[in-house]
């Protein structure tokens, strides 16, 4: 696997961060993780610090307040672009994005010379965790809207599982 960074924004992910990071670290030696924590009151930041101490492939950015998912990703990308990663992923910490799919994203990017590969929660059935029906319907409606407006065949344009190739 090429030099790859997984950016994981966190807020109150104390229960998920260690198992997710362990799963990612078991995959490939070229894979690294950047946790971007928004000052989680549940101790997520402390857990991230422990993971950094235990594994040199885990990194953490501590932000002083809950400042939003988009800004967490911007901070993560700024950090990543200062380093030499070939692939940079956006990924949730709650296991709604399956780490086992990471090699498939990279293969797809290589095979189709794609700079961006998007994951979808709707290609093979519906795969969402702990969502109220209203949120799922809103996501599906957004996908239909994007298809109509752009003519592009997105199944999940609002999804957060993405792979960018540098």
UniProtKB/TrEMBL annotation:
Keywords: Glycosyltransferase, Transferase. One of its GO terms (cellular component) is membrane. One of its GO terms (biological process) is glycolipid biosynthetic process. The keyword Glycosyltransferase applies. Residues 6-149 form the Glycosyltransferase 2-like domain. The keyword Protein biosynthesis does not apply. One of its GO terms (molecular function) is dolichyl-phosphate beta-D-mannosyltransferase activity. Signal peptide: none annotated. Pfam families: Glycos_transf_2. Coiled coil: none annotated. Belongs to the glycosyltransferase 2 family. This is Glycosyltransferase 2-like domain-containing protein. It comes from marine metagenome.
């Amino acid at each position: 696997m090429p030099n790859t960074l997984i950016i994981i924004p966190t807020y109150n992910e104390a229960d998920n961060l260690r198992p997710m990071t362990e799963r990612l670290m078991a995959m490939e030696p070229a894979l690294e993780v950047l946790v971007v924590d928004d000052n989680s009151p549940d101790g997520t930041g402390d857990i991230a610090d422990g993971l950094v101490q235990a594994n040199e492939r885990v990194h953490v950015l501590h932000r002083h307040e809950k400042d939003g998912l988009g800004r967490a990703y911007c901070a993560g990308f700024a950090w990543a672009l200062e380093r030499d990663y070939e692939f940079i992923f956006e990924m949730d910490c709650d296991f709604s994005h399956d780490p086992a799919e990471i090699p498939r994203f990279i293969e797809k990017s290589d095979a189709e010379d794609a700079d961006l590969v998007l994951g979808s929660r709707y290609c093979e059935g519906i795969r969402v965790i702990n969502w109220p029906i209203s949120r799922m319907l809103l996501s599906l409606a957004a996908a239909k809207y994007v298809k109509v407006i752009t003519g592009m065949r997105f199944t999940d344009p609002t999804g957060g599982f993405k792979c960018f190739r540098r």
